[in-house]
């Protein structure tokens, strides 16, 4: 039986972590600026050209800027194309299966498990597999059925998304234009070492599979098939990258409460976002802030991640019921987080004297 004093101390640590800022790992302004430019410039340019819808689809390619963000630009030049291909495949599959709720559900489980195995096997690091899952879901939402009719045609959407990935890649390499005397970049096999998975990584993949299957079935049967990706993405994010026991409990707490506060922020700013130029400024501003705070406090980052994704989703679908959108996302997050925390009871049991494998925090 679990020691109640141990459980109490774990809860106390998790609650303290909500108001604790981790040490700053280094300057983040360059990383935040690149992420903001990757999202804001395509949206602004296409809005000026009279196609804000295409600009919004391109801005989803800014997810690429979140990966390998702390690596030198020369290493990003080698590693990001691999990640871009995986993101594009996730978007392509999401668009392809969008007309069928059950095919979308099966695809969601496949993507969640496959990209998690990819992230763990190649030591991808933060932000891990969650944005691949979000990309699959957003692609399905944008191209799926609305009121019995198909949304955006898949091919134009995928062309816009690919253009966004290319633009984000170009922005990620901008420091190469001003750097001089830079050290040689490591080979790709060192930037993304692998594939290799130890017991800890397999344990994480198993937990992701459990969360993805249950979260998808619950969403498809009892909630809303089009929202399944959010439930699964929340669960994947809470599982995280660490095999440390009880790590997911704190992340689940951060994810749920951060989303609740973020939903309130969304309700406050959503009416302002109806103004085109306010919307254009909000998205890159939120992206900039996220990159500054995500390494300091996960829950605080969710306060800004939530309105960012809700604004994108609302603009893509034309939804004007902000309260219903915020409530739905909180419910989906709570379910996904609860599933991920519950999956934490599956504990890896290393051999005596052998430390548990893991991918880090």
Could you characterize the architecture of this molecule?
With 361 residues, this protein is mainly alpha-helical. It has one domain. 68% of the residues lie in helices and 1% in strands. The protein contains 14 helices and two strands. The chain has helices at residues 4-17, 29-48, 52-59, 73-97, 101-121, 130-143, 154-172, 188-191, 199-222, 228-239, 247-269, 276-293, 298-317, 322-343; strands at residues 145-146, 149-150. It has a two-stranded antiparallel ribbon. A hairpin with a 2-residue loop joins strand 1 (145-146) and strand 2 (149-150). Helix 2 packs across helix 7 (154-172) and helix 9 packs across helix 14 (322-343). The radius of gyration is 20 Å and the shape is globular. The two termini are 27 Å apart.
Q: Brief overview, please?
A:
This protein has 361 residues and is mainly alpha-helical. The protein is built from 14 helices and 2 strands. The chain has a two-stranded antiparallel ribbon with strand order 1-2.
């Amino acid at each position: 039986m679990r020691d109640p004093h141990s459980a109490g101390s774990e809860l106390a640590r998790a609650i303290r972590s909500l108001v604790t800022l981790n040490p700053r790992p280094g300057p983040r302004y360059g990383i935040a600026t690149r992420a903001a430019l990757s999202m804001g410039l395509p949206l602004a340019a296409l809005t000026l050209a009279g196609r804000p819808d295409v600009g919004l689809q391109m801005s989803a390619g800014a997810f690429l800027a979140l990966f390998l963000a702390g690596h030198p630009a020369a290493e990003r030049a080698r590693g990001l194309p691999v990640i871009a291909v995986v993101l594009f495949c996730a978007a392509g599959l999401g668009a392809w299966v969008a007309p069928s709720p059950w095919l979308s559900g099966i695809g969601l489980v496949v993507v969640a498990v496959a990209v998690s195995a990819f992230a763990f096997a190649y030591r991808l690091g933060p932000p891990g597999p969650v944005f691949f899952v979000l990309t699959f879901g957003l692609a399905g939402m944008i191209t799926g059925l609305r009121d019995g009719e198909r949304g955006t045609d898949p091919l134009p959407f995928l062309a816009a998304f690919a253009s966004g990935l290319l633009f984000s890649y170009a922005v990620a390499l901008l420091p190469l234009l001003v750097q001089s005397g830079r050290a040689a970049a490591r080979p790709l096999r060192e930037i993304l070492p692998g594939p290799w998975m130890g017991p800890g990584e397999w344990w994480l993949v198993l937990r992701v599979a459990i969360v993805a299957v249950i979260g998808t079935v619950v969403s498809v049967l009892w909630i809303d098939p089009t929202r399944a990706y959010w439930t699964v993405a929340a669960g994947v994010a809470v599982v995280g990258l660490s095999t440390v026991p009880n790590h997911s409990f704190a992340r689940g707490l951060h994810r749920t409460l951060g989303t609740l506060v973020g939903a309130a922020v969304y309700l406050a700013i959503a009416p302002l976002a109806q103004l085109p130029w306010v919307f254009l400024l909000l998205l890159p501003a939120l992206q900039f802030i996220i990159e500054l705070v995500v390494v300091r406090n996960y829950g605080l980052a969710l306060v800004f991640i939530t309105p960012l994704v809700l604004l994108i989703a609302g603009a893509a679908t034309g939804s004007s019921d902000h309260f219903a959108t915020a409530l739905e996302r909180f419910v989906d997050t709570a379910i996904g987080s609860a599933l991920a925390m519950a999956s934490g009871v599956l504990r890896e049991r290393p051999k005596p004297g052998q430390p548990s494998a893991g991918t880090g925090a």
